[in-house]
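Exam revision sheet. Question 4 asks you to relate a sequence to its structure. Input first:
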Amino acid sequence: MATYVLDGKSAATLARRPLAVRLAVSGTPTTGGVRLVARTPDGQPSTAVVETAPTMLILPHVTDEIVIGAVPQGGDLFAPGTTVHVSIGPDSNTEFDADVAQLTPRDVSGLGFIKLASVAPGGADTVTVTTWLTRPDSKLPPVAEAARVAARGVLNVDQVHESRALPVRLVVDASASMAPLFASGMVAAAADLVAGLAEVVSGSSQITLGAIGPSAPPPVPTATDGAGAALAAGPSIGYGLSGGPAVPAAPGTLTVVLTDSVPADPITADQVVLVLSGARPTTAVRGSVLAPVDNPVAALTAAPTVVTRVVSELLAPFSLAGGAR
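Answer key, structure tokens:
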């Protein structure tokens, strides 16, 4: 017997026979909070499966492609901490020599639906199991993890499809008025929030970090798990760069300008602003406002509704939503 662990854009070939799709759940909730579903490629319920339990589907004959997914039970969204484990193999426990396809575990917190795998006819006497979990989750700091969960809930997708994915840039105001926000850790926490969002919309585990001002160094690619750490200290170029040029447009990206006031210069179509301020700006903001707090990492991870609001407002100008129950 071989067990094929599927991640990335991988597939496995199994013998054509009745198959069982089995679900297990780890984390905070119980298995009772998740149900397997089967659909046709165009999203309609599949009539080619037998649901023996919410956590098991039987595929007696695979003559057309069947898409396997999961939905929450008892609510619209998966509960925080929900991780699903799915395997596809023979429907009989006595077939010890049969091959099994096993998907990498996936945290589905905040989603209303997740597409897991497709099962389709292969060559002679075989079927092909292909994972839809195109990129494994990376380990993130707490605020970034909360923002990733929030972005998935806002967009109702595990990952934005690669055809619509947008690389994420974070451009940070390094003027003197930002010094207290760097010192308090607020800038670093905000950077982690943007990094978590990027995990869902960019198709990668990387964002580009830059600063505003004529003396700013070139932007640098930074891993999403290190964005906050990279901004834990004040800018290496020093403060006092206010009044520099506007952030240049970068079509085809999602650029977040992190500052403490609404920029005087108009922002471009690829840009949104994240204003760190306790006062609501008097002018309209294309983006979001986040009030500075003490111990921002603890405060933000304890306030998922705040993280969701900020993520939602940052994503609102971009057409990235998708998915269906």
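Marking note for examiners. Residues 142-315 form one domain.
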